[in-house]
Write a structure and sequence with these properties.
The protein is an alpha+beta fold. It folds into two domains: 131 residues, Ribosomal Protein S5, domain 2 (2-Layer Sandwich), CATH 3.30.230.30; 79 residues, 2-Layer Sandwich (Alpha-Beta Plaits), CATH 3.30.70.240. The protein is built from five helices and ten strands. The strands form two sheets. Strands 1, 7, 8, 9 and 10 form a five-stranded antiparallel sheet that branches. A five-stranded antiparallel sheet has the order 2-3-6-4-5, sandwiched between helices. Strand 2 and strand 3 form a beta hairpin. The protein starts with 8 loop residues before the first strand and ends with a strand.
Length: 224
């Protein structure tokens, strides 16, 4: 995913999240979902049009890609510029850390049930922006990073201890594959030569020189 991107890390929502606000009797129900394509984003919009068929508006915004190259929004019948763009701004300008505005691979849909009181253009902008911002305040977010993957071979008897030692050293151990004779630990490292060489030095010590780690390429990994 995003193999041609320049960015090496970004933040997304960890699964699905729902949040509701009531503003002057109108219900604003915000749905957030992690997505990896425009089709997936539009899939949530389609789902909500069916499950909330009696709602007046299903406004949406989404951002895709580690470099956030795809950004779309839709007012879905609200006055132009009063829903989709404020929602997109709430996603795009969200700080996920000091100086970080890197939220991506996320779609937000706000389902509005009209309560009979007109909010005016300014009121709608504030309502849709607040709906998404309030949802993001409570939604579980997760950091994703493009890591260099190395395969580290070990005897079955030594694999468990080696995995514990690597985890204790702060190394991301992504899983273990068991072959006919050896276990292969998949580890993720910052894609920098100095980091990889330092890891290999540590690995040589831990494995008594038995493995340097085979380069398996790069992957986007959820940091948990």
């Amino acid at each position: 995913m995003h193999s041609d991107s320049v960015a090496t890390a970004y933040t997304t929502v960890d699964g699905d999240f729902v949040h509701e606000l009531e503003i002057k009797r109108s219900r604003f129900i915000t749905y957030l979902r992690r997505v990896e394509s425009e089709d997936q984003a539009r899939g949530l919009i389609s789902e909500l049009r069916k499950s909330h068929f009696d709602a007046r508006h299903h406004c949406s915004a989404f951002i895709l890609g580690a470099d956030r190259m795809a950004m779309r929004s839709n007012d879905d019948g609200e006055p132009s510029g009063t829903a989709g763009i404020p929602m997109l701004d709430a996603l795009a300008k969200r700080e996920t850390g000091p100086g970080h505005t890197d939220l991506s691979d996320i779609v937000a849909v706000v389902v509005r049930y009209f309560g009979g009181i007109l909010l005016g253009a300014g009121g709608l902008v504030r309502a849709y922006s607040e709906s998404v911002s309030s949802a993001l305040d409570e939604a579980p977010l997760i950091r994703r990073q493009r890591l260099r993957i190395l395969g580290v071979d070990a005897d079955y008897a030594a694999a468990g201890r080696l995995e514990n030692d690597l985890r204790a050293a702060g190394v991301q151990v992504l899983g273990t594959d068991y072959g006919p004779r050896l276990a292969t630990l998949r580890v993720g490292l910052n894609d920098e030569e100095t980091v990889i060489e330092k890891f290999r030095d540590r690995l040589a010590t831990l494995s008594a020189g038995a493995s340097r780690g085979e380069n398996l390429g790069t992957e986007w990994v959820d940091l948990r």
